[in-house]
Amino acid sequence: MIHTILADDEVLARQKLRQLLRDEPEIEIVGEGASAGETIELVRATKPDLLFLDIRMPGLDGFDIIGRLSACKDLAMPRVVFTTAHDGYALRAFEIHALDYLLKPFSSERLHSAVLRATEQICATKQGAVRSSGRGQSSTSYITRIVFRSRGRILFLPVSDIRWIRAEENYVRICTEAEQHLLRETMSHLEEKLDPQMFMRVHRSAIVNLQYLKEVRTEPSGEFTVLLMNGQKVSMSRSYHARIGELSTAFQVQPPALTNGRP
What we know:
Elements: E1 2-7, H1 11-21, E2 27-33, H2 36-46, E3 50-54, H3 62-70, E4 79-84, H4 90-95, E5 100-103, H5 108-132, E6 145-150, E7 153-158, E8 164-168, E9 171-175, E10 180-183, H6 187-193, E11 199-203, E12 206-209, E13 213-218, E14 224-228, E15 233-236, H7 238-251, E16 258-259
Parallel strand pairs: 1-2, 1-3, 3-4, 4-5, 13-16
Antiparallel strand pairs: 6-7, 8-9, 8-12, 9-10, 11-12, 13-14, 14-15
Helix pairs in contact: 2-3
């Protein structure tokens, strides 16, 4: 079960959300908060997996609540789904890695999509914690979407759509199948937020999505090249080449084919 708290200063809003969540068998509501103080105390006391959080609340707002909870060193932060009637906070919400952003009034289908995403992430985190407990390691939560402004729009780009990423001075270029986006970000910071089971750095200035990796070629010059499924070639430095072997061992699959690059 996914232990869940509902936080909203409007009684009717909490009632509506509670009714909609009755159709989600994985969800178990363990508390409701009508103020920032109540919500913080409930999270500390119940340690929920998931928090549905209104943004505009009396006193502290939703972001203040997240800040207070994040400061509790002995508290594992729940996944957060913001529920609000205002769309102006979406970018900020995803900058702090909110799981989802539901605009009121939202449908049962839209809520189900958020619950499904929460279920997948929470279950994956718990399984990771079990696997790593013997090694004394804690599981890490990686981003599933990148949110940014582009030409007057706020885009929500699933990381699974990214083919590869290239560094360009103080920016990174995000390459999908049909589009490219330039973000003011560093490669190192972005790499920390991406799941290493999905993305691998192959060069100081390049990260590739392993879902779209076809093979690694050894060119006649002796240099290595990553070939993506769409035919795109990305240079691979020797210092990163050894990680291909490590990756194939971790996944217990055969390493990508090494060819001499000849037609």
